[in-house]
Amino acid sequence: MVKKKSHEERHDEPMSASEAQENRETEGTDMDGQSAPEGSTEPARNNRAEENLLGKLTEMQDRYLRLSAEFDNYRKRTLREKIELTQSGGEEVIKKLLPIVDDFDRAMTSMRTTDDCGAIKTGLELIYTKVSEFLRNNGVKEMEVINEPFDSDMHEAVTSITVQDDDRKGKIIEVTQKGYSLNDKVIRFPKVIVGE
Description:
Elements: H1 17-27, H2 42-88, H3 91-113, H4 117-137, E1 140-142, E2 156-161, E3 172-177, E4 180-182, E5 185-188, E6 191-195
Parallel strand pairs: 2-6
Antiparallel strand pairs: 1-4, 3-6, 4-5
């Protein structure tokens, strides 16, 4: 079926008499092809369609504003929770450290009042054991690096010394500062002396 071009599409050609008659007949019908009731005009249909579109637009704008406000509230809430977590996140760790601080206080008092160096030494060893156990319980591990091959990504070389044994060349001879990892992530690199 070939579609006939309307007069608007063929604005450069004159309208024939039959086309003019056809246009007058279609103007008297509504969109469904039924005759429009008396008094009904094209502007009334346009107003109804316009009102429907405005109603949908208002609904969409309202939905957008509500969604935007909800997202803004979510963002503020998560930011507030994150701040609270960072402020109080270390609280449990500090609570676990307080008994060790108390032990240090007792050791300092004991050092001032006693002359028994053996008792002070034993007390300090007990405190050191408590600190080491506390670190282990919180996922902190000491890095064992003596006699390991030197790796510049994992170790910090302070200096190198000449060694007689060829097996020790390129390996770590001594540790000047221990390294630690927290849950398998290095938090402090060990400072080492390398054999050459």
